[in-house]
């Protein structure tokens, strides 16, 4: 069965609650499509107003992060149940910015992935190499390690529903999109890694996005690749361009 594309925006640390409502209202008619799942991952404080504004549309609201404990003395963190109670279905886990600026390790990512599944939230699990790693020729080794740790103790049935976002760090926010060949090569390698950990059926089911300076010009070729099932979009998800990316065909 063909995998349905999933195109997600990652708003990062942008948009106040009132700006979030305005942006959802602006983009609603532009991102209407039956062909792809459309997710807006927004700052925690924007989740509820964005969800209200998205009612009646195909937009699904997701979160950008979540903690791996149930609740308690973790000042500033967001519990899984806070997300499910608000109706959140997707959460980005292990974005490179969280790894770099907030010290998230592969082990943290794994704990968050397990916790998300426990609560019925689909994790969008991020991986990707630095420019130095690409130049050293260790891209696939590094990404495979990230994937293998992220999926520790995740069952095949859970893994089938997961989303992986391959985001080369050097392509994020730089305007440098990976070439279609580079993106397809790593996404195929990730799928092969999932087949090794689980089996072919799991590898065929899992959805793998590309992220890093995706724009309306690069999206069509990227999304036409056999192992690229959509995109995780930063900057371009904050403007009308996102409508063009979602309707890439
Ligand atoms: P840009 O699309 O702004 O490069 O961001 C990519 C990204 O990090 C999405 O998670």
From TrEMBL:
Keywords: Cytoplasm, Gluconeogenesis, Glycolysis, Isomerase. Pfam families: TIM. It is found in: Cytoplasm. GO terms for biological process: gluconeogenesis; glyceraldehyde-3-phosphate biosynthetic process; glycerol catabolic process; glycolytic process. The active site is at residues 95, 167. It catalyses: D-glyceraldehyde 3-phosphate = dihydroxyacetone phosphate. One of its GO terms (cellular component) is cytosol. GO terms for molecular function: triose-phosphate isomerase activity. SUPFAM superfamilies: Triosephosphate isomerase (TIM). The keyword Cytoplasm applies. Its EC number is 5.3.1.1. Substrate binds at residues 10-12, 173, 213, 234-235. InterPro entries: Aldolase_TIM (IPR013785), TIM_sf (IPR035990), TrioseP_Isoase_bac/euk (IPR022896), Triosephosphate_isomerase (IPR000652), Triosephosphate_isomerase_AS (IPR020861). Pathway: Carbohydrate degradation; glycolysis; D-glyceraldehyde 3-phosphate from glycerone phosphate: step 1/1; Carbohydrate biosynthesis; gluconeogenesis. The keyword Isomerase applies. Homodimer. Belongs to the triosephosphate isomerase family. This is Triosephosphate isomerase. The gene is tpiA.
